[in-house]
C-alpha cells in the first residue's frame, strides 16, 4: 500500500523568510548587486506561505496537492542551502575584517567561491561567479513555477478564512461507556483498583474540595478508555454515585456542547436552552448536593480558561464527586487535576497475547494451538504493549485462516497493512495531528533513530539545533532551552518514553510511534541499518533525502555506502554505535572518510562516533554548512587545521578520544561554537589560545592550563553550563588571573573539578595556591565539586559555606598537605562526601560538622554516603 508522507512546511517557511530579511545577508547582497533579486523571493515566499495551511490539510486526501508540496519542500531545502552559503560567506568576510593579518591571504577567500576572485583582491572585491548567479536564477524560476501550479489546486489563503486545524478523516471514533462483555479485561485490574482507591480516598478525606479530578494519562492505544469504561461500570461505583455521565470530548472542547451532553446524561431529558449560562444553571440545579461521577474521555484542551468555565457547575455536587479525565497529554492533565496523574503503562506480552488470541480466534491464548503459537506470539511482540494494536491486528487476523497467512502479516510492515482493517497508526496519528507545525518537524526527524534505539535528550536537542529547527522565543533566548522545552512537550504527549535503564536523560520511542515518524517523514529521512535494502525504499527518491543515520557495523566497507552516492544534498550523516561505551570501535574504510564524506557539501550534521578513525582529511574544512561534528570514541590524534574554518560549527564532540593530543591552533575562529566536549582525552596536554573569544561557548568540559594558556581565558565565557574541569592549576603564577576567570558569575556551572599536579615538588608556591583557590570561588549554584592534589595546609574559606545550598557531592583527594578538614555540616543538600589521601589530617572531629552547631546530630541532614580512604595519619575520630 502506498502511503503519502505528510509535508510540513509552515515552520520552515517562517525560518526562510527570516533569513532572506537578515541584516548580514543585506550587507553581503547589496554590494554584490544581488539584493534586488533576493528581495523578489520574499514576496513569492509570502504568497506560498499563505496557502500552506490549506495545502497541508488537503495533502492526505488529494495526491496532486501532496506532490506539489513535495516539490515545494525540495525547493525550500535548496533555497535554505543557498541562503546558508551566502550567510557563511558574509560571516567569513566579517571574521576576516576583524583579523586583517589573515585578510591578505587570497587562498582563504577562494575556498567558498573559487572562480570569483579578481586579481586586485580584498573582501569587497570578491564577485560571485556564474554558478552562484545561476543558482539564484534557478530558485527564482522554481518559485514562479510553483506559484503558477498553485492556482490549479484550489488552495485557500489563510487570510481568506483557511480551514480547520485537523483533518476530519483522522478523527478518533466517539467512545461510549459500554464495555465489551466478551472481550475480557486483561492486565488492568491492578490499575482499576488503584483508581477506585483514589476515588474512595477522595470521598473520605474530608477535603473542602467539592469534586476531585483524576487524570488517566498515557499514549494513544494504551487502553485509557477501556480502563475508564470498566471503572464506570463497576458495581461499587454504581452503588456509590447518585449520578453518572460519560462524555467523549475529543478534539473540540466546546463548553456549551459538553455541558448539554452532561445534562442530558444525568437527567434523561433534553435541554431547551442554547445559552451556556442557562444550561450551566440547569446543570448546577440538577447535581446540587448529589454525588456524581463524570468521565471526560479523550480530552485535548490545554486552555485553562475553557476548563474553568466548564467546571463551575461541578462545584455544586456533594463531597466525593469525581471527574475522571483520559488524555494523552500531560499539559491537559496539569490544568484539570486535583490529584496526581495516573500514568498508564503498556501491558506485558502475556496480556497482549491474550488480547490478540481473543480477537483473532476467540481463544484464551495460543497454548493449545501450536501451529499459530510462534507467529501469534511474534505478532504480539510487535504490539509493544499496546492493547489497541493487539485488538486491531487480531481483527485483521480473523480473516487469515492458515499459519502461513499469519506469518505474512508478521513479515509485513505495520504501515503496509490494509487501512480499512488497521486503526493502529490512525489512532496514533491523531496525536501527531495535534502537534504545532514546528513540533511536527522535530518529531519526524526522529525517524532516523532505529527501533528500540536509546537516545539522549541532550544529544537530540543539539541535533535539532544543528539542523536549524530551533529559534529563540519570547521566553527563551538560548536555542538549547527552546529545544528542551520542545522535547518536554513531545514527551508529555507520549511521543518519547523514559528508558527502562533508569538514566534520567535517556529515552526511547515506542515501535509504533517510530513507525509513525517514518511514515510522516517519508523520503526526507532514511536509515542504513541491517536491512538497508528495504529501508532505503525507492532508489530514485534517494536524491531527495536530506537526513540519514547509519548503524555501525564491525567492518563498514565502501560497498555498504553506495546509496549515499545518490544523496548529494544530504544534511545529516549520523553514525549510531551499537555499544554505548567507547571500549569497542567499528572500522570504517578510508574510502568513505576521504572520498564520500567530502562530497556531501551540504552536511550540517556529521557524526563518526564510535568508528576506529585515525585522522580526517583536510577537505573536512570545505563542509561550510557543518554545525555538528561528533568524533567521540574515535582514535583520532589531532584535527586538521581546516576545522577552524568551519565558521558555522556549533557543536564539536570529542569525548573519549583517548589519543587526541591537540586542537586546531585557530579554534578561536569558531565564533559560533557552543559546545566543546573533550572529556576523556587524557593525552590532550595543551589547548589553543583565544578560547575566551568564543563568547557563545556553553559546554567546555575541561581546560588544560600551561604552555601559554592561562586560567583567565575563562573570563569571557559567561555562558558556561554543566561541568568544567580545570587541569594544571599549579601553572597559575599570578593570582590575578584566577580573579579574572570570574567563576562566581558563571551561574550555569553545576559541576567543577579543580586539579593541580600530583607532583608536590619545591616549585609549588603554597601562598599562590591558597590565593588562587580562594579567587576561584564558583557560583553557589554548584552541585558537584572535586578538588585533586591541592597543596596547601587549609582548604578555601568558601568550602562549606551554607550559601552553597545545592551542593550534593564533594570529593577531596590527595590534598596531602592539608592538616584539617573543612566544615561541611552546614551544606543542607550534601548527599555524598568522599575524602581520600589527605595524609596531613590526624584527627577527624566535630570541626567537619561545623562549629556552632548546637547538636552534632543536626549536621549533614541529607548525607547518604560518607567515604574515607588512604587517611594513614588519622589516629582517631570523634
Automatic annotation (TrEMBL):
Q: Name one GO molecular function term.
A: ATP binding
**Which Gene Ontology terms describe the biological processes this protein takes part in?**
defense response to virus
Residue intervals of the NB-ARC domain: 206-339
Record field: compositional bias (Polar residues): 157-166
Ranges where the Disease resistance N-terminal domain occurs: 9-102
Q: Which Pfam families match?
A: LRR_R13L1-DRL21, NB-ARC, Rx_N, WHD_DRP
Write out the entry's keywords from A to Z: ATP-binding, Leucine-rich repeat, Nucleotide-binding, Plant defense, Repeat
Is Repeat a UniProt keyword of this protein?
yes
User: Region Disordered: what ranges?
Assistant: 157-178
Matches recorded under Gene3D superfamilies: 1.20.5.4130, Helical domain of apoptotic protease-activating factors, P-loop containing nucleotide triphosphate hydrolases, Ribonuclease Inhibitor, Winged helix-like DNA-binding domain superfamily/Winged helix DNA-binding domain
> Where does the R13L1/DRL21-like LRR repeat region domain start and stop, copy by copy?
712-837
Top-level taxon: Eukaryota
Query: Residue limits of the Disease resistance protein winged helix domain?
Result: 448-517
What InterPro entries is this protein classified in?
Apaf_helical, Leu-rich_rpt, LRR_dom_sf, LRR_R13L1-DRL21, NB-ARC, P-loop_NTPase, Rx_N, WH-like_DNA-bd_sf
Return the similarity comment: Belongs to the disease resistance NB-LRR family.
UniProt protein name:
Disease resistance RPP13-like protein 1
